[in-house]
Amino acid sequence: MQRYELPDSHGHFGPYGGIFVAETLMPALEELRLAYEAAQTDDVFRAEFEYDLKHYVGRPSPIYHAKRWSGLLGGAQIYLKREDLNHTGAHKINNCIGQALLARRMGKPRVIAETGAGQHGVATATVAARYGMECVVYMGSEDIKRQAANVYRMKLLGATVVPVESGSKTLKDALNEAMRDWVTNVGNTFYIIGTVAGPHPYPMMVRDFQAVIGDECLRQMPEHVGRQPDAVIACVGGGSNAMGIFYPYIPVDGVKLIGVEAAGYGMDTGHHAASLTAGRPGVLHGNRTYLLQDEDGQITETHSVSAGLDYPGVGPEHAWLKDSGRAEYVTITDDEALQAFHNLCRYEGIIPALESSHAIAYAAKLAPTLGSDKVLLVNLSGRGDKDMHTVAEKSGIQF
Amino acid sequence: MSRIQTTFASLQATGRKALIPFITAGDPAPEATLPLLRALVDGGADIIELGVPFSDPMADGPTIQRASERALKQGMTLRRVLGIVAQFRTENADTPVVLMGYANPIEAMGLERFVAAAKDAGVDGVLVVDYPPEEAAAFARVMRAAGLDPIFLLAPTSTEQRFADVAELGSGYLYYVSLKGVTGSANLDFADVAQRIPLIRAKVGMPVGVGFGIRDAESAQRIAEVADAVVIGSRIIEEIENSPVAEAAARVAAFLRGIRVAIDHPDHGHGELGR
Questions:
Q1: Helices B190-204 and B217-226: angle between axes, nearest 10 degrees
Q2: What is the pTM of this model?
Q3: Interchain contact, A27 vs B159, CB within 8 Å
Q4: Is B108 close to A280, i.e. CB distance below 8 A?
Q5: How high is the pLDDT of residue A186?
Q6: List of E strands, B157-263
Q7: Could you tell me if B243 lies within 8 Å of chain A, comparing CB atoms?
Q8: Catalytic positions of B
């Protein structure tokens, strides 16, 4: 076990992270930092958080041995951390409960969020309904087209969904717009960021709320195989499900951490969303991290079949884990992810989210190269109900 | 004394306030920027803030974001912005130019290379919107070593400790964001500005400019009564946006002249000027 105590008090993970926002937001971030610090050591807050994770989300989520599929692949055994079984169908709810409870403690009656695939928007709308808060969700108009069912879900839950028409009309533009709302309404509004990016303390706070995933795995894996896995695999867009499962494993020797980025149409086509693999460090959305950008420092448009991975940046802690060599980052194309999606449906009776399908696809690549005594733990971060239209369309089927 | 300090000193000597218009470089096209800079000088600009377009202008409202998008579509880059400033300097040696933009294009070029190139081009100050004092130590050091002014923002929400932080790192002038919100917002709080500016000026020991939400002669005049400089951005971009390309420069100059008259004649009644 090695000590790992990042970020520092200013939110830096080595050269990454930090607080890169306009002056208007600085006092709000300071207020948030202090409130979060107080909440962390408050037993009542902890108890509220854990109560809702257990009784509202349905935690702990099980770990499932994908035995049949592992057998067909002929190699390492694949275990799935079933975040898809959470209330609202993905890991996003863990963080939303934590931040909504914090908002309530801080006396903020209004919450806002950005969303790509709609999963974080749905999770935010859900907790806002649960705690009786006003909720506004910003979503790129391109994503709204791709994720109509989630848009309707958010509306059912009482949220206002605001289409964002600027820029590439996807997640990064929704994030810009949510930041603008926050700057304007900072007095009564809490901004629930859905991933481990943004200005300090967000990357740390979201990681902490999501770390319940990895903490459970640390207890559950020995129950299944009598030890910890050889590798932990998770998809990385912004990187919250990956940080959630990686973080408790960082100090555990002998466990490889593998993040899977979206290669879209293929890394050589330039149409992908693999910021750690193909990007350069820069500053966007409040933190310094790896970014997909042109040589003049303009952020480039990304592509992935999964809206949740379609983001040109990545959480700063992943940037640090990459540079330090503690985690490695690989890529999976749209086609490979779709293939894995279909395989998991057919061989295990589990319909995974297209985001999670990237992690599953990499596990399927890796497993046959390893002996059957090896164990891979894959974070199945969400279920695929929201992706029915996308997958059907790719298969040439119209509903 | 830097060109910015000289400008404020001579204004102070004649009892006038600085007028600082903002335009986005490359909007609506790269070749339009130099004529617009001339028009701003003709219209009475004391200092010019030149926006460096960025793909994700988080702190700006829709007007300046549209300007950025138009400029980027036309191929505007930080390098080309510096080229335009260099060209402007061949014909104007007096009007300070402050670049305003976001960190990433600067970091992509490299901080030292950028500052050296900005100095060569004749830039006088740089305001990086997403560099709060906490993250700006290296930037401020390199800028000041080159004799350029790092300009910082303060907001209605800023604490007195933060006044001290920007006083230590910044020079030239201080830009007070007069409202909670993004550029181009409408709800300007004059009472807050009137109360805060003297406090800030006493603490930071440099001229204080006020921007965000100033849209017409009346608001400019009221701000000029308390601040050292009046910054106008979105309203000028709208003028450019709504004019045929050939007429944009003339219209911007005319609009700015109205503002100039208003802030130079504080004794005239509100609401009659520049309408």
A1: 40
A2: 0.95
A3: yes
A4: yes
A5: 85
A6: 174-177, 208-211, 229-232
A7: no
A8: 49, 60
Q: d(Cα A336, Cα A264) in Å, to the nearest integer?
A: 9
By mean pLDDT, which of A73-82, A303-312, B131-140 is the weakest? A303-312
Residue numbers in A near B157 (CB within 8 A): 24, 26-28, 186
Q: With beta carbons under 8 A apart, name residues in chain A contacting B109.
A: 296-297
Structure confidence at residue B273 as a pLDDT band (50, 70, 90): very low
Q: Which residues of A touch B129 (CB under 8 A)?
A: 22
pLDDT of residue A1: 53
Domains of chain B: 3-264 (3.20.20.70)
- What ipTM was predicted for this assembly? 0.94
Neighbours of A82 (CB within 10 A): 17
pLDDT in tens, A347-399: 999 999 999 999 999 999 999 999 999 999 999 999 999 899 899 999 888 77
Enter the tokens of residue A5: 């105590």
Query: Is residue A291 within 8 angstroms of chain B, CB to CB?
Result: yes
The Cα B182–Cα B189 span in angstroms is 14
